[in-house]
Amino acid sequence: MLAISTMWNALKQPDGAAMFDELKTLGFEKLELSRHLTPDQVEQLKPYLHQNPPGSIHNFCPILPGISQAAAEQDKILLSSLNADERKEAVRRTIQTMELAVELETPTVVLHLGEVDTYDRSYLMINLYNYGEREFEAFNQKVTEATEWRKRKETKHRDAVLRSLDELNERALRMELCIAIENRPYYYQIPDFDEVGLFFEEFYGSPMRYWHDIGHAALQEKLGVCWSDKWLEDYAEHLVGVNLHDLQGLEAYHPPGTGDLDWDEVFAQLPTDVLKVLEIRPCEAEQVVEARELCESLSESNEQPNA
User: Fold this and answer.
1) 256, 238, 243: which is closest to 184 by C-alpha?
2) Is 213 within 8 Å of 224 (Cβ atoms)?
3) Which of 141, 156, 223, 236 is nearest to 190 (CA)?
4) Residues 6+ apart with CB under 8 A from 228
5) Main-chain phi, psi angles of 236, to 5 degrees
6) How many whole angstroms separate alpha carbon 295 and alpha carbon 263?
7) Which domain holds residue 176?
8) Contact 150, 187 (CB under 8 A)
9) CATH number of the domain encompassing residue 29
10) Domain for residue 57, yes or no?
11) Per-residue burial over 244-267, b = 16 or more CB atoms within 10 Å of its CB, e = otherwise
12) DSSP string, 11-78
């Protein structure tokens, strides 16, 4: 099934009812509620969503008090925080999103788990990539330096995430809800590749699942952190959903088919039975429809017995 995220029009369409109409006109079967929705937009959407339940909700939804829609992607409170009050507040706000999911009969809440509090050296890899030095030893040295610095501080933040997930998994079990941990675009964010496996080992048998973001994985590969196809190869058994967006250089959230990624190859890796969500920045409606048609065509091709 193919859905579209409210990321596309949440900032440009303040009225929830009008937002719903715009998205349905594009021809999608399902919506995903993004982190950009205001409380008013969520309330305005509810009458429509009770009849058409979202396929997934991104945490936190709606946006946190005092946060602008434009800044919604910048995590202000973290499930990985070493500050006990902040971490508990992040858990509380996550539970509120989970309660919204239950109210709307949405099966999955997608979690951002936080980050390691280390000096962000991503700009070093980004600069070398932009200068065309991706294949040179200097690039690999910067990747190694950055990831080594992460390792020096990651244990305490990982333990904080484990405490958060322990409580959230317990709640999710009682709510009969899936919580899905998402791969993130940058090396200092949680989880890295190995941490996904660690978390599933720790919470074996829980309602926790894996949510794969195609663009994030591709960005990590471009920045030398992890091969993009490895996530799906190793964690396919836990996979419940996928975000679809293209990269133009290192710029994410473009419609599939308008950037650098090979979408035939991408869809060849995707199970047919997981929710696929178009997660793209504001653009012309025609581009969204073309991206939907591309994804639908590739999905149908992969469903064929001899595909």
Assistant:
1) 243
2) no
3) 156
4) 214, 217, 218, 220, 221
5) -60, -35
6) 8
7) 2-116+152-303
8) yes
9) 3.20.20.150
10) yes
11) bbbbeebebbbbbebbebebeebb
12) TT---HHHHHHHHHHTT-SEEEE-TT--HHHHHHHHHHHTTS--SEEESS-SPPTT--GGGTTS-SS-
Distances (CA, A) of 173 to 178, 274, 281: 8, 21, 33
- Assigned domain for 91 exists: yes
DSSP string, 97-141: HHHHHHHTT--EEEE---B--S---HHHHHHHHHTT-TTSHHHHH
Residue found under tokens 């330096």: 145
Token couple for 153: 């501080």
DSSP 8-state assignment for residue 257: T
Provide DSSP, 233-256: HHHGGGEEEEEE-EEETTEEEEPT
In a domain? residue 146: no
pLDDT tens string 174-192: 999 999 999 999 999 999 9
Amino acid letter for position 64? L
Note the pLDDT tens digit of each residue in 45-75: 999 999 999 999 999 999 998 888 888 888 8
Domain count along the chain = 1
Instruction: Judge whether 218 and 184 are in contact, CB under 8 Å.
Output: no
pTM value is 0.95
In a domain, 11, yes or no: yes
